Amino acid sequence: MLTVAVALAMAYPNLPDVSELADYRPKLPLRIYSAEGALLGEFGEERRTLTPIQDIPKVMTDAVLAIEDTRFFEHGGVDYKGIARAALANLGSGGKSQGASTITMQVARNVYLSSEKTFTRKIYEVLLTFKLERLLSKNQILEIYMNQIYLGNRAYGFAAASEAYFGKPLKSISIAEAAMLAGLPKAPSAYNPISNPKRARIRQLYIIERMQENGFITAAEAAQAKQEELKISSGSNNTRVHAEYVAEMARQLIYAQYGNEAYTRGINVYTTLNAGEQDAAYTALRQGIMDYERRQHYRGPEKFIALPKEAEAQEDAIDDTLANHPDNGNVLSAVVLEASARKIVATRADGDKFEITGDGLKPALSGLSDKAPPNIKLRPGAVIRVVKTPKNTWEITQLPEVEGAFVALNPKTGAIRALVGGFDFGKNKFNHVTQAWRQPGSTFKPFIYSAALEKGFSPSTMINDAPIFFSAGATGGQPWEPKNYDSRYDGPMSMRTGLNKSKNMISIRLLQAIGPKFGQDWITHFGFDAEKHPPYLTMALGAGSVTPMQMAAGYSVFANGGHRVNPWLIARVTDHKGRVLSEFQPQPLEQTPEAIPPRNAFIMNSLLQDVARVGTAARAQATLKRPDIYGKTGTTNDSVDAWFGGFQPTLAAVTWIGYDTPRNLGSRETGGGLSLPVWISFMQHALKGVPVAELPVPPGVVNVGGEWFYEENARNPGVSSLGMEDGAAPGNGSAPPAPEERNRILDLFRN
User: What is the pLDDT of residues 721-741, one digit of tens each?
Assistant: First the structure.
């Protein structure tokens, strides 16, 4: 005893200062939220939601006390009765030991000490326990324990564990769920309800019995809790909104400001994202890509495995295989058990078998043919992808190789309302909205038309849609003969009709007339980079480079009446107690820079409204059944990039679909067929309940005979015609492209 006393006396002065626990500040993750407060993402090694003791439901503390420290509120930190009881139990346990650590002792150990089992560490643990009991109240100690303890699945504390295992807030848990969570502190991996459901269940039942024995619940409540069927969350990602690209953007911005501290100090980031619109964008883009995938040739199963004959061995082989081929959203993985020309029988990891027949086999008919090569032949052991159809039947599919992007902005503020940077963040983390530089094709034409308005052109200006040819002598290199998408030429037409039909000859003549250098300068008003758009005539066909984000910002200028707004994402940053660390308020629209004259924006909107009414995007107004829809389709040469950019005055949005390594999407694939349906699907959700908007007529424009003009051009027609002087072949007298253009003459002639 003397030796122990001396050891205690010598150790006490070396104890760590525990006063900081009076203001308990554990490591808290960085959390990203939508504008309404929906969780979008969480970053940090420790998932934890700091929850004051008064906000922890009694059923949770009762469950913990029942199994960990029944006499917590009675002892002084060390439970001598508990130690004696554990010692007696261990004598007759046949090797199964029973612990006697109190909650205070566990707090001392978890916060300050290692887990090594030595006599010295035990002395420090006891001394720290006494120190904590003297400094803190019982409720403070219990609060620290309930928030600090590791419970598996990267969850620290019971609030985080409730979200991790049940996908619900701690305040909503039942007795059965609380008992399951209370079983985790002893051994988080051994009693994990996801990976070890049987052992977790045994311990849960024992804890329910302990709760009843200690008077925390009645016999009836215990019986009901034992019968309750728990819904365990099987995934590690419990975010309710698919906004992984947005969460990563926010993480990078916060890390740049706070460094590694961003992941430990409990920073909460509130974005401008609208959760409902984000869900609609995610669903629409994935659906659009999967619809395209159905039209592609079948590339074959992802893998082939040998199926053991014994049922248990077969189940293990299937489980191991599908674990390496995880589901991708609603695109699920499965293993083929039987395959014939008329039916496939497959199974998922849950062991349930299902059949694919009829139309569900069509996307993979080539894999069911007797002549199918081995790499695509559907046979037992093939790892395939399937989706559920609207009719609740199964359809075979494949993970797409094509990518896409979608972004929507509030055109009056620049706030990002929805952003999907690709088909799936887990599959490809490259953010196509902000990082993909692609040729915009005909979606770029409105910016050239806008420039033409400032040079005296009007929607009624007649322009000759006739072939143009530039000889090798004229270009200083190879001859250039641009074409319309359909290789048809309709002769003289108004500038308005030229945009409706997306005629390439009209755009080329406009840029040639105003001068490529003026066009290059003009597009910078919309936020485009001049160096990405060399001042050549090919710029009229969208031969430069843009990102979908730039396009959304550019179309926002038309939507808001001529003002330049910069896209932004983070509205507010707070600490874990809700104190505001930073906040952003956009400037009122009237105080933002005027990119183009309001009258220019108004007439361009009139043109874009017609494109969405009777032009290449007529499907937009026809489907949405509202006149305040504006936009432009775009498909680049060889159908490499498919675009749609458009807006309703309260929301501007852009869709892009293409391959990361540029290649042909298919001879019949266009922006109107690929990207426009995604945009429409999003807008059907986003515009519900939004009143139809009528754009006010700004000063300086007049309507004459049903057409809009700049006021001065109504009196003096300005440019009334273009390209008529040379009849059907006006290229003979046209100024050629600059010699430097010889390597940039690209045949980009799609809608």
Answer: 777 764 433 333 334 444 343
